[in-house]
Amino acid sequence: MMTLRQLAAEPSTLPMQTTWYLTDLAEARGKQELFTRQSPQKLKVLREHALIESTVSSNRMEGVEVDQSRITTLLFGKSALRDRDEEEVRGYRDALKLIHENGAKLAISEATITRLHKLSRGDIWDAGAYKEKDVDIIQTYPDGRSRVRFKTLPAKETPAAMAEMIELWQRGLSEKWVHPLVLAAALNLDFLCIHPFRDGNGRTSRLLFLLACHHCGIEAGRYISLERIIEDNKERYYEVLEQSSRRWHEGKHDPWPAMNFLLYILTRGCKEFEERVGRMTSPRGAKTEMVEHAIETVSGLFGIADVERLCPGVSRDMIRLLLRELKAAGRIECLGRGPGAKWRKRVLPLKEGRREGS
Length: 358
Description:
two-stranded antiparallel sheet, mainly alpha, Arc Repressor Mutant, subunit A, disordered C terminus, 2 domains, 358 residues
């Protein structure tokens, strides 16, 4: 709540970089309604793909991974779960669906935050409950050394801090201290510094930011995975969190590195959404769009089986046909022969913007 306290006490002049992001996001919000009226069936494909990417990326950042061949079954089927990791992956899916189906109608409250945590953590004993013992954030190096990267708020102070954080968020919106998206970024930073749960804080923070974006009228996170963009920039993500958490306990921290990073991520998501919808004006089908989007967002080498897992409902024959078309167009290249051959992209999936990350 220290960041929100800063904004309440003396709302500062926004850094120029923040102003640029807010300008871009205002423009994106203006286009959003037009975009969401276009090709509902194709947007449904984007929603399903974003659900897969968001669930996989957010859990993978916390060391939770499952068999890739099980992803579609876990997220869209009802099969029995094999282990804790699968339980958490499906739980994160349920948390995302709760946000996307309710949007801004789902209040940002302690009850909602504990519910999102409970869903994303599954049936573990303390899911949805604040930590009972102090938990610091530890960084471990490859050689075995470790250090305390950040001392989180003591467990005994957590309930009061969470209540104050929510109260300041609500006051900030009603009293218009700063732009709502700046408040959303501040809320996220304070949540991570309080670190209210024993485990699962990172995933819950990303769900909370997505929900706050809905409250601010930005819904690109329905169609483009913000979690995947964060994972693509995860080194910078951890770096800015450490920068902005220094002296947080004293209220003398600099919140802008972490806050601008989140605004950058949101701007990237809106830009990608705009580009994806722009390409939907072609007469191609929704399945073609799904395959092309999967190839654009996959990292490194990929095979036909990888595309199949990311594109439920698309036949292998259709994937082969589309790969040949993309190869002929010079967008991808094949590095081998036969069904096990690997492919790679020959062009970047996104155009370079005028700014880099925060």
